Amino acid sequence: MDLMERVQEFESRKKSGMSTSDRVSASREAKALILELNEIWKKDKEKNASIMDVMKRLTVIKQKIDKRLKGNLNS
Fold first, then answer.
1. What is the pTM of this model?
2. Which residues contact 62 (CB under 8 A, 6 or more apart)?
């Protein structure tokens, strides 16, 4: 599967009603996707802005998941 297809599938996946283990795996998957995109972006001579936009969207999703995880662990 292409990287951008995996990103689109991840973004379209339902985020509500996830168990804690689902959130952990989603957070790890988001991190892996961001790192893959970052490697492509670093090698890109023109520094394609669309790649950066996708990384920013994924980062926001990951931060929301992590925030919910940390809230659950402290209770």
1. 0.83
2. 27, 30, 31, 34
